[in-house]
């Protein structure tokens, strides 16, 4: 008899108020639906959101209401969301961090529909543990060209001795992420990301842009290397997106990256089939695959 796939379900003591509240009205996705999705994703997602400073996109009335991109605590914040001092800004406003699934459930309870961590943990603030390349296609860019761009970045990372992992953004593009041993500092990591972007636009100026001011030019892919400065963020693997469709940023295996999969193919509603022990975690080796950035 076929074995039923087992799903590793995280549990929380956080009480949701109004679990039936709809956050994505066109998709019928509620607060409870979002927590249920994260409960399935948690074992895979945790290393990318726990103990990292977080920025949040909060939408108290769902995706059609007002939204706030928020890096600091608010009045009445849930105690499972910790306030932490930035060691470089000890007197400044506190930043936010979670430690466990209760923290993530508390974020959902607080209508944080998108979670954007720093590319480092609070154990080594000044030394990022990943480089994130964000491919931002302008209008009129074929999806096959975005895939080719991601593969180009993978090849450039490989030349630097770095492994790379790909995920959908849940929006319009792809993110290619290289795990790092946390040794190089922010300016060095950002310079490496910038060099990749400039290398691509120099080699294929018809396809790629690496200057932020021109990022919106139609027909080109902006290679957004700016996710890599101290305090910059990118959407977390598995985070939902506060956009119609309730897509999520989904880690992929490189072999999966074909024209069959689009940037918003995976959603809060359809992701469950990947989040069980029948479907290997495509980013399982992420931190084991880390190498130091060579200077
Ligand atoms: P897409 O594939 O549609 O580009 P994306 O997540 O890559 O999706 P971008 O616009 O390329 O979106 O990236 C914006 C990044 O800037 C986010 O990842 C976020 O972490 C960061 N950011 C900084 N300030 C804001 C803000 N006010 N609102 C939203 N994002 C912000
Ligand atoms: Mn992007
Ligand atoms: Mn971008």
Automatic annotation (TrEMBL):
Superkingdom field: Bacteria
Keywords: Ligase
GO molecular function term, any single one: ligase activity
DNA ligase D polymerase domain sequence ranges: 31-283
InterPro entries, per the entry: LigD_pol_dom (IPR014145), NHEJ_LigD (IPR052171), PaeLigD_Pol-like (IPR033651)
Residue stretches spanning the membrane: none
Keyword Magnesium assigned: no
Record-linked NCBIfam families: ligD_pol (TIGR02778)
Protein name per Swiss-Prot or TrEMBL: DNA ligase protein
Organism: Rhizobium rhizogenes (strain K84 / ATCC BAA-868)
């Amino acid at each position: 008899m076929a074995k039923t796939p087992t799903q590793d379900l995280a549990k929380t003591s956080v009480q949701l108020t109004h679990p039936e509240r709809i956050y994505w009205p066109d998709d019928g996705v509620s607060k409870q639906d979002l927590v249920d999705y994260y409960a399935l994703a948690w074992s895979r997602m945790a290393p990318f959101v726990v103990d990292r400073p977080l920025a949040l996109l909060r939408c108290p009335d769902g995706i059609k209401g007002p939204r706030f991109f928020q890096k600091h605590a608010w009045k009445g914040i849930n105690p499972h969301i910790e306030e932490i001092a930035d060691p470089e800004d000890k007197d400044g406003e506190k930043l936010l961090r979670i430690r466990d699934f209760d923290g993530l459930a508390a974020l959902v309870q607080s209508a944080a529909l998108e979670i954007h961590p720093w590319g480092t943990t609070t154990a080594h603030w000044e030394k990022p543990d990943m480089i994130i390349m964000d491919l931002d296609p302008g209008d009129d860019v074929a999806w096959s060209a975005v895939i080719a761009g991601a593969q180009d970045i993978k090849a450039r990372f490989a030349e630097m001795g770095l492994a790379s992992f790909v995920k959908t953004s849940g929006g319009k593009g792809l993110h290619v992420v290289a795990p790092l041993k946390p040794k190089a500092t922010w300016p060095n990591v950002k310079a490496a990301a910038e060099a990749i972007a400039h290398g691509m636009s120099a080699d294929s100026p018809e396809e790629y842009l690496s200057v932020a001011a021109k990022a919106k030019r139609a027909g080109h892919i902006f290679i957004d290397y700016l996710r890599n400065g101290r305090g910059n963020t990118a959407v977390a693997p598995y985070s939902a997106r506060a956009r119609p469709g309730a897509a999520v940023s989904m880690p992929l295996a490189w072999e999966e990256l074909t024209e069959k999969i689009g940037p918003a193919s995976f959603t809060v509603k359809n992701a469950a089939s990947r989040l069980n022990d029948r479907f290997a975690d495509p980013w399982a080796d992420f931190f084991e695959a880390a190498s130091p950035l060579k200077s």
